[in-house]
């Protein structure tokens, strides 16, 4: 019993170092998870437009097993496991993992797999490392984060549109039709060739237009507003400043903005 306890403790320490440590090995591990997440999302999106053959189902199962192992590892090192499972993002991730392992009721619930996209939000814990490693990310962090939020929303809503409409709405035959509707509603183009039916369809349309346009405007605001730089003020803690700022706008203290040389 003692050896088993020490073994589990050692495993927990090792996993916690990978997920939360500041070593090179830990950073490589988290970058690997990020690449794996992105690859999984691309696979989900690409195969949603095709007929799922045996090779897709086999690949789904293999991915599902890997995701389940990774999910169990995060649960194992969580300081409060019940609270960990109660997180909406964790629940969405668990549903997505299970949908990889079993095609729940066929394509009708296939949209659950797109919830895997929400795992991108988990990569926000890598922000500090991405700032250190990539100049492009440092300069465009707000744009990248806003774009991720918008993309996540688009594909989650596309999956929801497909799941609720494909059996009753002849205009929604595949994910492409659902994506087309979502984008036209989001941009308020509204060609009218595809409309959602029933009360649920109307509510979904309202959510897409209200929430989607808000996210779209947020992205546009970030794109066109003057670029800010991150340099915490040592007095008041204000982080974002104008690129040519000499004094903090909040407290008036002199700020010394670090530069990376002439471009």
UniProtKB/TrEMBL annotation:
GO cellular component, one term: voltage-gated potassium channel complex
Keywords assigned by UniProt, alphabetized: Ion channel, Ion transport, Membrane, Potassium, Potassium channel, Potassium transport, Transmembrane, Transmembrane helix, Transport, Voltage-gated channel
Pfam families: Ion_trans
Domain Ion transport: 39-216
Location(s), subcellular: Membrane
One of the GO BP terms on file: action potential
Protein name: Two pore domain potassium channel family protein
Lineage: Bacteria, Pseudomonadati, Pseudomonadota, Alphaproteobacteria, Rhodobacterales
């Amino acid at each position: 019993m003692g050896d088993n306890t020490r073994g589990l403790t050692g495993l927990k320490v090792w996993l916690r170092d990978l997920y939360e440590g500041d070593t090179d090995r830990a950073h490589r591990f988290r970058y690997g998870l990020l690449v794996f997440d992105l690859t999984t999302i691309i696979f989900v999106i690409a195969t949603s437009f095709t007929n799922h053959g045996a090779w897709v189902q086999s690949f789904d199962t293999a991915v599902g097993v890997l995701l389940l192992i990774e999910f169990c590892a995060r649960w194992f090192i969580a300081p409060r496991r019940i609270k960990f499972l109660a997180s909406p993002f964790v629940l969405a991730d668990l549903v997505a993992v299970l949908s990889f392992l079993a095609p729940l009721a066929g394509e009708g619930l296939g949209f659950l797999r797109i919830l895997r996209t929400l795992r991108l939000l988990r990569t926000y814990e890598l922000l500090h490392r991405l700032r250190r490693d990539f100049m492009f990310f440092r300069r465009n962090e707000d744009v990248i984060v806003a774009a991720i939020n918008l993309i996540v929303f688009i594909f989650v809503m596309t999956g929801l549109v497909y799941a609720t409409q494909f059996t009753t709405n002849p205009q929604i035959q595949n994910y492409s039709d659902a994506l087309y509707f979502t984008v036209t509603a989001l941009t308020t183009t509204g060609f009218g060739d595809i409309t959602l039916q029933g009360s649920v369809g109307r509510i979904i349309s309202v959510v897409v237009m209200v929430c989607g346009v808000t996210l779209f405007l947020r992205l546009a605001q970030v794109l066109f507003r003057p670029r800010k730089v991150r340099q915490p003020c040592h007095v008041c803690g204000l982080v974002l400043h104008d690129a040519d700022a000499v004094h903090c706008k909040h407290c008036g203290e002199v700020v010394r903005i670090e530069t990376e040389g002439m471009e």
